[in-house]
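Appendix C: a fully annotated inverse folding record. The material below is reproduced so that readers can follow the format used throughout the book. The structure is listed first as tokens, followed by the designed sequence.
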């Protein structure tokens, strides 16, 4: 039998394209950032086969519900790769995951991540994870584990994709959702930081069609196109949870629901958290479209209906609150650095109302819920 260790034709894991030493180096570079998200509930520190989290405090709950969510960043990673900037994409990942959990009123407890790449470049992987860790700190959640997988032949050396999952908890009688929403409630919009992480297939197609380079300085944006496209997603989880705890407690909760505006746009995502028989009327004139959305519209001659079904158009999260708490909610959110405003109201839907047209949405993503009607024109 040939001694493989002395045979120059031997095939090794390294020659197959997987560098385990580079993976170990990446772990060393990211370790401190990950550990910075750990509180006393994280057990066993860094580097175990499984992340451990002490849930003893759930014993104080009357009826704890666990909430879970998983997501990725989508084709926004192509922008990060093209610009060779990787320490912000983590905010997009965390925002897409934890802000789905907070919609039901759940506190995100811990998160794990997964990175697949054609070639492990330790510094690049560490930048990605540092961004994830920084966003976890903003969200108040622990990053308890993850995996970096090297996939030579499946992904190009400079290509990667990221995904993550989070688990949270909410007391059963504090669960938010359509059953709490009432006629007379007020809709509050929270400004997005930009495109966030949805609709990049449309945006990239428009940019390529226009022949614009990422390095192009755009006066309307006040920076380069690439810098705008890579703007990190605003993470709302801590602000939403603060709102549920801050608003005066009456016979019923003041906050009745949240809607995370992601794929599908504002109307479709808001409709998911409304009960059948109610309609939210949202007034477009209560906010101006940020410059990037106008730019995409103009460069691609994109119809308004398509924009509204694809992009957040400046609204990243929505709160549905009782009318008597609306002013306090707006004031609180603004004081925490989240630009917010009253954008509409909820009412019983008239049986003879017109239920067609691009301005009208009823139910979405498999949820046969309430309806949303967009009215007016966006402010100049």
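Designed amino acids, in order:
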């Amino acid at each position: 039998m040939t001694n493989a260790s002395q045979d120059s034709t031997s095939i090794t894991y390294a020659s197959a394209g997987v560098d385990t030493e580079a993976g170990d180096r990446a772990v060393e570079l990211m370790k401190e950032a990950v550990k910075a998200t750990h509180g006393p509930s994280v057990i066993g520190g860094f580097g175990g086969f499984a992340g451990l989290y002490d849930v003893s405090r759930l014993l104080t709950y009357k009826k704890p519900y666990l909430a879970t969510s998983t997501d990725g960043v989508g084709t926004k990673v192509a922008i990060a790769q093209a610009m060779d900037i990787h320490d912000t994409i983590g905010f997009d990942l965390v925002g897409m995951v934890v802000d789905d959990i907070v919609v039901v009123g759940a506190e995100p407890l811990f998160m794990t991540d997964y990175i697949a790449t054609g070639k492990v470049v330790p510094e690049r992987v560490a930048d990605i994870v540092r961004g994830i860790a920084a966003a976890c700190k903003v969200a108040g959640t622990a990053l308890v584990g993850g995996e970096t997988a090297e996939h030579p032949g499946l992904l190009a050396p400079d290509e990667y994709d990221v995904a993550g999952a989070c688990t949270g908890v909410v007391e059963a009688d504090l669960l938010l959702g359509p059953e709490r929403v009432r006629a007379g409630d007020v809709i509050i919009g929270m400004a997005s930081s930009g495109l966030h992480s949805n609709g990049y297939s449309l945006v990239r197609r428009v940019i390529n069609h226009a022949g614009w380079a990422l390095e192009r300085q755009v006066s309307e944006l006040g920076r380069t196109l690439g810098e705008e496209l890579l703007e990190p997603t605003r993470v709302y989880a801590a602000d939403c949870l603060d709102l549920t705890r801050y608003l005066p407690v009456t016979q019923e909760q003041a906050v009745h629901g949240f809607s995370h505006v992601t794929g599908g746009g504002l109307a479709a995502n808001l409709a998911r958290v409304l009960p059948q028989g109610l309609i939210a009327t949202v007034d477009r004139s209560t906010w101006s479209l940020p410059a990037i959305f106008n730019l995409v519209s103009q460069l691609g001659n994109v119809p308004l209906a398509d924009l509204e079904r694809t992009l957040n158009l400046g609204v990243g999260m929505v709160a549905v609150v009782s009318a008597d708490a609306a002013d306090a909610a707006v004031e609180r959110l603004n004081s925490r650095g989240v630009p917010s405003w009253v954008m509409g109201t909820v009412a019983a839907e008239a049986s003879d109302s017109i239920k067609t047209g691009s301005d009208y949405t009823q139910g979405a993503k498999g949820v046969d819920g309430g309806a949303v009607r967009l009215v007016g024109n966006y402010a100049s």
